[in-house]
Amino acid sequence: MNIHYLGHAAFELSHDATTVLIDPFLTGNPSAAVNADDLAPTVIALTHGHGDHYGDTVSIAKRTGATVVAITELAGELSDAGLDDVRDPNLGGTVDFDWGSVKLVPAWHTSMSPGGTVNTPAGLIIRLGGKTVYHLGDTALFGDLELIGRRHPVDVALVCIGGHYTMDRHDAVEAVRLIGPRQVIPCHYGTFPAIITDVGAFKAEVESSTDAEVIVLSPGERHSS
Ligand code: NI
Ligand code: MN
Questions:
Q1: Which member of 117, 145, 193, 209 has the lowest number of beta carbons within 10 Å of its beta carbon?
Q2: Which positions ≥6 away from 50 have C-beta within 8 Å?
Q3: Which ligand is nearest to the CA of 52?
Q4: What is the pLDDT of residue 33?
Q5: How wide is the angle at C-alpha 98 spanned by C-alphas 93 and 100, nearest 5°?
Q6: Measured between alpha carbons, how far is 195 from 156 in angstroms, rounded to an integer?
């Protein structure tokens, strides 16, 4: 399975003919590594409706016909926006595909979409290519990360570390300890002044206090897991 970091909280996971695009905030994203018009996902999965996650979802899905997975209220808004293949799970729900699955798990955050729909933020547990990727979404540190990690042994955790809008790098070290993933890719930092942080210090602290390996990707870089 290949992981392509597109900047901020946006990633593409790909295996064989399947590409799962997560939180495609590209237009207006100062760290975007690609143009939204150049992406051709099979599925778009959203953690929540904030603009820096919802991003270019509607234009990409309209152009490509990609299936969109988003929590119920957000899915309703996306259907109203004219998308015809929208799946609408709620927390705890899993959407199965022939290539794997997307499950919504809790995240502690707030959210309102650009269109004004209040929606509950989520983390995403994605099964693809025999691997489990956990995108934490935007979240504060909370104890049930341990339960999520116990329920779903995680190969790669995509972890917000920027602080201010989410947990900071110090809380994120504890989050990694609770989840127990094999590998960690930090995200949601450096995009804006308020979320600039020391990613090297995060990597050093995680690797000295847990068994996880931290892979720091610059926007546009890839990692094979
Ligand atoms: Ni957010
Ligand atoms: Mn965010």
A1: 193
A2: 111, 112, 113, 138
A3: 2
A4: 94
A5: 55
A6: 22
Q: Is the dihedral of CA 62, 79, 107, 14 positive or negative?
A: negative
Q: How far is CA 5 from CA 21, 23, 50, 141, 209, in A?
A: 10, 11, 19, 23, 25
Calculate the dihedral angle through the C-alpha atoms of 125, 127, 128, 129, rounding to the nearest 10 degrees: 140
- Residues near ligand 1 ion, CB 5 Å cutoff: 50, 138
Domains of the chain as residue ranges with CATH: 2-220 (3.60.15.10)
Q: What is the pLDDT of residue 216?
A: 98
Tokens representing 12 are 């593409």
Residues 61-102 pLDDT 10s: 999 999 999 999 999 999 999 999 999 999 999 999 999 999
Summarize pLDDT for 144-197 with one digit per residue, the tens.
999 999 999 999 999 999 999 999 999 999 999 999 999 999 999 999 999 999
From 111, 95, 112, select the one nearest 103 (Cα to Cα): 95
Q: What is the predicted pLDDT for the residue at 137?
A: 98
Distance CA 18, CA 96 (A): 14
pLDDT at 1: 97
Alpha helices in 87-154 (DSSP H): 145-151
Residue 23 confidence (pLDDT): 98
Report how far ligand 1's centroid is from the alpha carbon of 16 (Å): 31
What is the model's pTM? 0.98
Task: Give the separation between CA 149 and CA 154, rounded to whole angstroms.
Answer: 6
